[in-house]
Amino acid sequence: MLHFLSKLPLVKHVVHQPRWWALGFIGLCLGNAVITPLTLPIGWMFAVALGWVALAWLFRWGNPRHPHSPKRVWPWSLVPLIIWWFYVYMADTYGDVDIAAIFFHLQAGMEGHGGGKRFLTAIVYTLSAFFSLVAFVWLVRHDHRWRLLERILALFLLATNPLLFGITQRSATMVTQDGAWLDRRYIEPKITEEPADPPNLLYIYLESIERTYDDNERFDDAYEDFNAIGEESVVFEGVRQLDNTGWTMAGMIASQCGVPLMPAGLLHDEQFEPLDHVVPGVNCLGDILSAQDYQLTYIGGASTDFAGKGLFYNDHGFDRILGREELEPRLDDPDYVNSWGLYDDSLYDMMLEELKMLDESDDPWGMVALTLGAHAPFGFPADSCKERQGEFDGEDILYSVECSGWLTRQFLDRLEDEGLLDNTLVVIASDHLSMKVSAWDKLVASERDNTLMLYSDDLEPARIRRESTTLDIFPTILETMGYQTESHRAGLGVSLLAEPQNLVERHGLTYLNERLTEENALQERLWEGVDREVRFKE
């Protein structure tokens, strides 16, 4: 069949013409650049490519009727095209591209990064980018019309790249007329009333497991075990994601400090130096509890060197910081790890051991833990789930979400049996909304919100629907533990158990994100600890 097709005149013409190879490849790359950010079906990629080739045939691109001599020129568009390729790769990897996250990770460090599964994708993107640039150079050199057009194209590519748009937005903070709108609403977290019997705190961050999965029509029963936990908890609905809170370290800082994570760069001379501290200018949950004589432990399966996690917890009152480097030697099977670190069943076993030791002390304790089971893009389901769920196909994120729910529920049952939940507040929460996963199209089909559940013997199960952000978790936890703060506020957050409106209820998420792009005073507070009079203006 292939031999027969190769004999057809049209096919022979196309195969032996470098013009069509170049134009066809450019068309496919253009199609990919369209469908990836817009999350369109792959069929649209071929439709875009076909449309591009049709235009090429109609206007005789690469073979004009009155050709000029080929010129050995280098297109102005090469750099803008490379930046676009970087953006498309980031969009394919993470879904939503956050320039703040890029800045922060470059500065905080990426040692211990576990994204090895994306290595092949990165190679494919790199090769595709290279060959598309070669094809575009050929087109510009052989078609004088494109030599004129591509200069305008270079400006268009720079102006429309969302990555560069994010950079220019952050740069706008340098000249904004009011760069202290958020900072004026910051309330220093100060305890005004303490509980007679301080409770313990167990805060479990569920990597990327947003409450959006609680929809049987779209996600079957993947969230079922979390719903079972919720039946005995106070469940909060409507916890949205503010900009600069959408990755793990940012989500932790938002929920423990009541502030978005604005990177240290752009406003500082040392913006390209490695960080020695993480948000040293604000008091966070660990600082408050440490001052109340809590014994505090952070534990997570991934490296604490990645993204400054170890620095943050060391700076903010934690006594023990346990990550992959400290926990991996404890494993019975040293090979039972994934590219990021420990599987969740191993982590929960070690958490139980640590909690037993903490509970032997007369002082109240606090533990913050971070799971890995549903980490994008595919998750890392533990082997202990396979007997219950069958084999993992390597891609289905719903399998990983279900596994994480079952392991978390089993872990809480074990804590109950050990008596470790007496006078203990348990917080079950997502660190941030999920990045791009196999269920991405379904996740982004409606409004999304984070998981947040509070469990304690003293709490009556309930469902509370309030528009809020993860900034409001900080004062909510303090108030639930019996620590009263000024006006039920801490940082930029307002307790979800109190009547005062939070920032989202008062101003809306869109407006807050707009003000965040202009803010520089709060950024200075985070990184320099600048002392200033704190005023709250409505």
UniProtKB/TrEMBL annotation:
Q: How does it sit in the membrane?
A: Multi-pass membrane protein
> Which intervals hold domain Sulfatase N-terminal?
199-483
Query: Which residues are listed as membrane-spanning?
Result: 20-36, 42-61, 73-90, 119-140, 152-168
Q: Does the keyword Transferase apply?
A: yes
Which UniProt keyword terms apply here?
A: Cell membrane, Membrane, Transferase, Transmembrane, Transmembrane helix
Entry-linked Gene3D superfamilies: Alkaline Phosphatase, subunit A (3.40.720.10)
**Which GO cellular component terms, listed alphabetically, does the Swiss-Prot or TrEMBL entry include?**
plasma membrane
Compartments where located: Cell membrane
GO MF, one example: transferase activity
The answer to whether keyword Kinase applies is no
Name of the protein in its database record: Phosphoglycerol transferase
Q: Where is the signal peptide?
A: none
From which organism does this entry originate? Aidingimonas halophila
Pfam families cross-referenced by the UniProt entry:
Sulfatase
Q: Which domain of life is it from?
A: Bacteria
